[in-house]
Amino acid sequence: MDITFNTGLMGSGKSKKLIDDYLIDPKEKVVLSVSLTEDTFSRGKIESRDGRSLKSINLNRDQFKQNISLLEIIIFMTNTQTIYIDESQFLPKETVEKFVSLSESYHVPIHFYGLDLTFTGELFDSSSHLLTILPSENINRISRGCEASKCSKIAQYNARIVDGKVSRSGETFVEEKSYYLALCSDHYYNDEKII
To answer: By C-alpha distance, which of 101, 65, 80, 79 is closest to 32?
Structure first.
């Protein structure tokens, strides 16, 4: 199976890994980035926290038919041999299922990069699907440390911070910018102010 899932918490280096993997891949390749607001087929950009970036083509999470059409065009009408997808957690499970099916049918590797957990501690549907269907050797978990002051534990949660405290409820997909920290379980479940 030529499908991989690179996952980790916010700030763990998923986009950096995508850029690194893309740059060393000698094959013809394309980068897609999932968006909540931009239209499928529009130009996008993947940026890592170290300042590097790649041009990409956007996939709008709510435009199923257009997303499938774009992937079919890439597979059937170009010389693309590898596909990289950033922010894959935003894709609906049905889109990921179709992408996996196309990848397997036409032997075009797809590398997914995205979060596994929402800020409520639940798996994103698409990430849950990839974690279920892929063998463990095709899953790369990227770890990072807890961002709470003076903590040296490994972070396990993406925490949405509201008024300095962890918020564990609310809408998963929000268009406005929210503030998030990667936290260990001790700090995620602590109801005291984090910042």
So the answer is: 80
